[in-house]
Amino acid sequence: MTTSTPRTFHVKSFGCQMNVYDGERMAELLTAEGMTAADERETADLVVLNTCHIREKATEKVYSDIGRIVKDARREGGSAPLIAVAGCVAQAEGEEIMTRAPSVRVVVGPQAYHRLPAMVAEAAAGGRSAETDMPAEAKFAALPKRRKVGASAFLTVQEGCDKFCTYCVVPYTRGAELSRPFADLVDEAEALVEGGAREITLLGQNVNAWSGEDARGRPVGLAGLAEALGQIEGLTRIRYTTSHPMDMDDALIEAHALNPKLMPFLHLPVQSGSDRVLKAMNRSHTAEGYLRILERVRAVRPDIALSGDFIVGFPGETEAEFAETLQMVEAARYAQAFSFKFSARPGTPAATMDDHIAPEVMDERLQRLLAALQRHSLAFNKTSVGKRCTVLVERMGRHAGQWLGKSPWLQSVHFTGDVALGDLVEVDLIEAGPNSLSGRLVARAAA
Ligand code: 5AD
Ligand code: SF4
Q1: Which whole number is the average pLDDT over 313-328?
Q2: 101-140 b/e (C-beta count within 10 Å ≥ 16 → b)
Q3: What is the pTM of this model?
Q4: Fewest beta carbons less than 10 Å away: which of 225, 281, 291, 435?
């Protein structure tokens, strides 16, 4: 049993970008307590597993990770690190983790992680605690000010979901929709830019449902927030994810024409192309309704890169209904997309629906869907060849002098040249694959 206060920590985040954001904020909290981040989990006194509950596979990973941490420590003859489980599995299965994994000393849900340092201190003193309350306030106000960040930073503006799609655990793990106040977001964005961010991605489970009041007390939506953030000097790019089709309002669509800092990229999941399945999913839009939204977006921003999410093998999905999903892919023309096999999540309505689809049928449908999506990604990327665009340098590549950055359309672009992380550079796009492009550096762009 750990009895001394941990000096080093390692946060491992699974799942969505909001978990990445939460993981960074947890790291900032622990750093503010005087602890140091360890690059490797093997050398850390405290390991925080920031978990994802969205699909069964993601959840299982937590238990196998816990087992591996304990086993590694035993093999090396040392004492096991203090293990904390955070995130959505902690929220949904807190009690079960406490009984199933005695080596876990702290369980903290996504709305309570501002309490992590206090809980770690308790655990270090020999205790064990779980905190999965979902108070709608407190957390953000209790977090330290943002400091050093990368060129591209995340900013959670909205959490939770009231949509209750029948397959999804998010409304249960993250709670009701909640928008963070406008002024807090402007402050945090300014701190991020001061800390080195050139690009900010606004995050929310339903980010386009964000609403608030601007500095003059006028009601604003996400478009208004993006406009205000666009005034921050040094911030050059704004993105947002994930959006719900029903919250795609006129102002946000217009913003893609009017706000020069809003990047031409839209992640707008549709999940299925079949109206029967969409209804059973409680998606509250039809395939046609979704396509009409895309038409409106493309009317103001013809080059927009579209992204989406799909679920194959929803209970009762017939071959003909799946074929409608493939038709949706052809009609919508995705630049990139994520697709998943349906996973029955305990407590969701879909888990107890009739006619679950056999795993091998799901596998086969997933392969066909992936092939169609891959074809579209390649086609989209090929349309970029020959264009000159601005790339934000985000990482070093594998080879000496090679760099990796993002185009305005969120394509990964690699190139060589004399640049630095966080630079905005002009690149000629010369070759396209389904997942990335290669380019030739032209010049550093004016900031
Ligand atoms: N099974 C499979 N995929 C799911 N998603 C959410 N819940 C499930 C589930 N039970 C997918 C949806 C969502 C993305 C984040 O994860 O496509 O948009
Ligand atoms: Fe889940 Fe649907 Fe809410 Fe997205 S909109 S988080 S899929 S319930």
Answers
A1: 98
A2: beebbbbbbbbbbbbbbebbeebbeeeebbbbebeeeebb
A3: 0.95
A4: 435
